Amino acid sequence: QVQLVESGGGSVQAGGSLRLSCAASGRTSDIIFMDWYRQAPGKERELVAGLSRSGSSTYADSVKGRFTISRDIAKNTLYLQINSLEPEDTAVYYCHAVVNIYHNVWGQGTQVTVSS
Q: Which of 11, 24, 43, 72 is the most buried (most CB within 10 A)?
């Protein structure tokens, strides 16, 4: 009953910025928690940032201070502002939601490529 669609990825130079979006549709009132993951080539998928319905945010140590997670409740959209990009940030970024009753929903992913 919940669908997620990411957008905003692309190719940028090191030091640049991107803003990723995740549009949620369906029964969005069932969403308990949303977050962003990423998966780089040859690596496991890792948690980047999360945001609860109450507005509490969490970040991975590797991105803290550079990435900011936010939301537009009226638009049912989650955002990830990425600043000071480094080549190590190159990955497919996935939007994820925990839906009542604790069911996981994933977006299709959006590619972020950072060149030096």
A: 24
Across residues 2-15, what is the average pLDDT? 98
- Name the burial class of residue 89, with classes exposed (0-12), middle (13-18) and buried (19+) by CB atoms within 10 angstroms of its CB: buried
> If DSSP codes are grouped into helix, strand and coil, which group holds residue 28?
helix
| Count of all residues that appear for the chain in the document | 116
pLDDT digits (tens, 9 = 90+) for 30-57: 998 999 999 999 999 999 999 988 889 9
The Cα-based distances of 59 to 16, 47, 69, 74 in angstroms read 20, 8, 9, 24
3-state DSSP call for residue 3? strand
Whether residue 67 contacts residue 18, with contact meaning beta carbons closer than 8 Å, is answered with no
Return d(Cα 61, Cα 59) in angstroms, integer.
6
Q: How far apart are CA 66 and CA 74, in angstroms?
A: 26
Retrieve residue 40's tokens. 């780089």
Residue 93 has pLDDT above 90, yes or no: yes
